[in-house]
Amino acid sequence: MDRQGLRDLQAPLKARYREDPETAVVTLQAQGTLGEGITCSVETGRALARAGLHPATGGDGLSLCSGDMLLQALAACAGVTLGSVATALEVDLRGGTVRAEGDLDFRGTLAVDRDAPVGFREIRLTFELDTDAPQAQLAKLIELTERYCVVLQTITGSARLSVDYSA
Fold this sequence. Notes:
The protein is built from five helices and five strands; from the N terminus they run αβββαβαβαα. With 167 residues, it is of the alpha+beta class. The strands form two sheets. Strands 1-2-3 form a three-stranded antiparallel β-sheet, with no helix packed on it.
């Protein structure tokens, strides 16, 4: 897709959202079903993803780790956002990779040490791009990718979260 194709695709959406801001608010959903052993199956729209314990917490390594899934979602969102922004800025990308990695201290999630954090201590997002674009244009590309990546902004902004249950 080229810049004009992207603009043509998004123009009616942007116009509708300007005229009626409430139409821009969409509720996304994910649902998991508790499974055999300590697993939870989540529908991804294309397949069923079965999450379980990471081997560092006693898992067998056959089920997906939700921490890995978070990093995968970040890499995917950042990659799609980067591609969209590159198209809009007419940055010629021949290819590239997006890597998300994070450090977890499993003492926290296993309640071994109350002072150990539960969750990622640090997450690193790295782009390796195949392009001849000038440095200033690449800096702008990364700046806008960070600004518009939904998963990155959610992680850094700490969205309000409510928890409820029923039995």
